[in-house]
Each structure stands twice: as structure tokens, then as C-alpha cells.
Design brief:
The protein is built from four helices and two strands, in the order E-E-H-H-H-H. The chain is mostly helical and 166 residues long. A two-stranded antiparallel sheet has the order 1-2. Strand 1 and strand 2 form a beta hairpin. The radius of gyration is 19 Å and the shape is elongated.
Length: 166
């Protein structure tokens, strides 16, 4: 499906979007989680970067599976590639969870802002409490997504330089 781009293997090209967008989304979403007033201004750009990173992770995983199959057909099969593929699957799950949490942060943040603007007697603080819980979840998932991005990228580099490239 996603085997080549301009005659080059797609996977090594696509991973560049993952290693740039996911950590950028992580740092940006942590900023939104920690500084709620920034949500009004930066929620949409952070959401788009996050969805771009998550989408890139999914597409890179699909392209990686195609690339791995092509390598096997050419007689290249080693444990480093398999380890990288397993970490890619884990990263995809973390990235998807992170993406859902950022969407929840944006939605809960908007509802908390509406609740805050309607502050007065009888107004509950439900969405404000929910947005705090979601913010904590986003921070944790952002950190784990970045850690998994680094681990997966490093294992891919090892597969090239200690495996295929040697």
C-alpha cells in the first residue's frame, strides 16, 4: 500500500514526520494542560499537530509493515527489525491514546471555560474538575508517547546501522 515515494521506501521518509510531530505535540499539549488560559488561543493548532503526528504514526506503521515484508522477500530478516516492528506497534497504541486524550482536553477545556464564564451561585464545577483530570492524563500520555517515539526511532536506527547497513 505505502511502499514507495518517488521510488524510495516510504517508511524511512514517513518516520521523520512522526519523530518531529509527536514530540512537538507532546510539549505543546503539556503546555495547554498546565496553562489553561492558553487553550483558547492554541487549542486548535495543538490539536492539528497532534492529529498529524498520530496519523503519521499510523501511516508509518503500515508502511513499515510493507517495508519489512519487502525486506523479507529480498532475504533480509533479523531480530532488530522485528524488535523495531514490535516497538512500532506499541508506539501506535500510545499515540492513538494520546490523540484521544488531547481531543478530550480540548473539549473539556472549552466546557470548563464556559462553566467559568457562567460562574455564580448554583454553577457546578464539574467540567473544571474533569479538565484537571484530563490534563493530568494528557501529561502522562505525552511523556509516554515521547519515550516510545525515542525508543522506536532508536531501534529503527539500530536495525539500519547494526543490521541491514552492516
Amino acid at each position: 500500500m505505502f511502499q514507495t515515494v518517488f521510488g524510495l521506501p516510504a517508511h524511512p521518509l514517513l518516520v521523520h514526520a512522526v519523530v518531529v510531530l509527536l514530540p512537538l505535540a507532546s510539549v505543546s499539549s503539556i503546555a495547554l494542560a498546565v496553562v489553561p488560559r492558553w487553550r483558547q488561543r492554541y487549542a486548535w493548532p495543538v490539536l492539528f499537530v497532534t492529529l498529524g503526528g498520530v496519523g503519521a504514526a499510523v501511516v508509518a506503521k503500515i508502511a513499515g509493515e510493507d517495508f519489512q515484508e519487502k525486506l523479507k522477500q529480498n532475504g533480509v530478516d533479523n531480530e532488530l527489525i522485528q524488535k523495531h516492528a514490535e516497538l512500532g506497534t506499541t508506539l501506535q497504541l500510545w499515540a492513538l491514546s494520546f490523540g484521544v486524550a488531547v481531543i478530550a482536553l480540548v473539549v473539556a477545556g472549552r466546557l470548563a471555560d464556559r462553566e467559568r464564564s457562567a460562574d455564580g451561585p448554583g454553577v457546578t464545577k464539574t467540567w473544571r474538575r474533569i479538565s484537571v483530570v484530563v490534563a493530568v492524563l494528557v501529561v502522562g500520555l505525552a511523556v509516554m508517547t515521547t519515550v516510545e517515539t525515542v525508543r522506536t526511532g532508536h531501534s529503527g536506527s539500530e536495525a539500519v546501522w547494526k543490521g541491514i547497513g552492516s
